[in-house]
Amino acid sequence: MSVREACPLCSQAGGEVLWQDEQCRLVLVADADYPGFCRVVWQRHVAEMTDLDPAERRHLMSVVFAAESAVRSTARPDKVNLASLGNQVPHLHWHVIPRWRDDRHFPNAIWGEAARPAAPRPATAGPALREAFVQSLAEAQGGE
User: Closest Cα to residue 94, out of 71, 73, 126, 65?
Assistant: First the structure.
């Protein structure tokens, strides 16, 4: 089995694709506890940021920052966590996670043990997040 066949981010989108270009994609993660949670996934199978050349790194981070901006404007969280772990899936991707002071895991990472029951949250619709993302990305690229 090849690396691409074995890697879940090579063989699957990783969520609902909201936007993509030749280098990366933005996907919405289906998580009712964290509406607006998304990932920015590098299209090519690489494990680390340093596998990218400087222009690719700048592009990836501009997409991550545009995703953060879109999550802030649509989900209205108290905080946004950005994480690039890849311990279980060594394919370069960034998590963009909306956080609230009363969310299940606050103040800990969402991958840990829950501290409380989930607070009800309104869903963040993919189309609204996509529109906010595209606007944020266009603004960022216009500013470069």
Answer: 65
CATH 1.20.1250.20 fits 3-142, yes or no: no
Judge whether residue 139 has pLDDT over 90: no
Task: State mean pLDDT over 90-118.
Answer: 93
Closest CA to 8 of 73, 79, 88: 88
Tell me the pLDDT tens digit for each residue of 16-62.
Answer: 999 999 999 999 998 989 999 999 999 999 999 999 999 999 999 99
Give the pLDDT of residue 25.
96
User: What is the rounded CA–CA span in Å between residue 144 and residue 142?
Assistant: 6
Burial (CB < 10 A; 0-12, 13-18, 19+), residue 71, is buried
- Per-domain boundaries in the chain: 3-142
Smallest CA-to-CA distance from 36 within 9, 73, 64, 89 is with 73
Q: Which amino acid is at 124?
A: T
Q: Report CA-CA distances (Å) from 29 to 18, 61, 70, 72.
A: 10, 19, 14, 16
